[in-house]
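Changelog note: in this version the structure field was regenerated for every chain. One regenerated record is shown below for reference.
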Amino acid sequence: MILTSFCSASRRRPSKPTAPSKALTAVAALAGLACLAAPAPGQQLLGTGTIYNGGGTTGLFTQMDLTVALGSDPFGMFPTPTPFFQQTIDAQSAGQTFVLNAGQMFTDAIAFLTNGQLDYVHETLRPPSGGGGGSSRGETSFFNFASCLTGVDFQGTTIDRLELRIDSFSITPGSFTSFQLAATLEVYGACPAPSASCTFRNGSGTNPTGFDCTTDPVVGTNWDSTIATTLSTLSTLLGLSATGSQFPYLGGEILIGVAPTAAFLPGAGSYSLPIPDDPTLLGVPLFAQGFRVELVGSTATLVMLNAQDLVLGQ
C-alpha cells in the first residue's frame, strides 16, 4: 500500500475543499488511512439572478420599497404573486445583504422554487406614495442555475437560504425623483444527491477481465467488489485512486492514477470497504482497478485486470 507519499500529498491540499481533495479523502477513507480528515461541508450556490430597475417619477422621496415575489402568472395578476423579500431601501442600502432562511415567507418561496414547474420572479420598486414599476421573468430566464440542475427550477435540491444583495442604489430626490437599482438574488443549498454507480472500463482491451462491483458505492454503506482468482493466484490487489489513467506496463495496462493519489490493498479476491456517512463525498468520482499476483513457473507475476469507475452517491 502506498502510504507516505499519499499522506504527505493530502496535507498539502488547500484549506478550501476542492474536487480532487474530496477524492483523496474518499480514497483515504476506503483504504483505512487516518492521514486525511474529511473536508468540512459547505453550502453551494445553486442559482443567481440579477435585478435592475431605474427611472423616475414625480414626488420628493428618499426611500423606496423593494419587493421580490414568486407566482405562477407571468403578469402577476391571477393569482397575486407571493412576496418573499420586502425591504425599504435608501441611498445607504448599497452593499447590504438581506438573508431569508426561516419563517412563512421562506417556506412559501421554497414551495415555488422546488415544485418542478415554471414560475415567475416578480420585482417591483415603488416610492412610499405608490407608483414605480417592475418586471417579471420566468425562473429559467431569471436564474443562472448551477451545473447540477437541469430542470426549470430547483426541484430536488435542499435550499438553506436566500440572499438579496443590494449591489448599488442611487436616488436623486426632487420634484421629479430619479433612481437606479442593481441587486442580486442568490439561492444557497445542496444539489440533488447523485446515484452511486460502477462503470466498467478496460482501456484498449489488453487486460483480462475479472474485477467486478457486487454493490454500488453508496455513501454510509460498505462497497463490495470481487477479483476473480485462478489456481495460480497467490494474492490480489485492489487499487484505488483519485484519478484514472491508461498506460502500458508489464504487458498490460495501468488504468488508475498512481502515487501519490493511489492506495493498493492486498487481499484474497473479496473486498468490503466502508464508505463514511459523509454528505461531502456525494458525487465524488473514484477509480479502481483489480490486480492478481500469479505464480507463473516459479515467478510471481503481476496481472492487471479491468477498472471500475466509481461515483459515490445514494
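Spot check on this record: The longest strand covers residues 44-58. Confidence is low (pLDDT under 50) at residues 1-18, 33-42.
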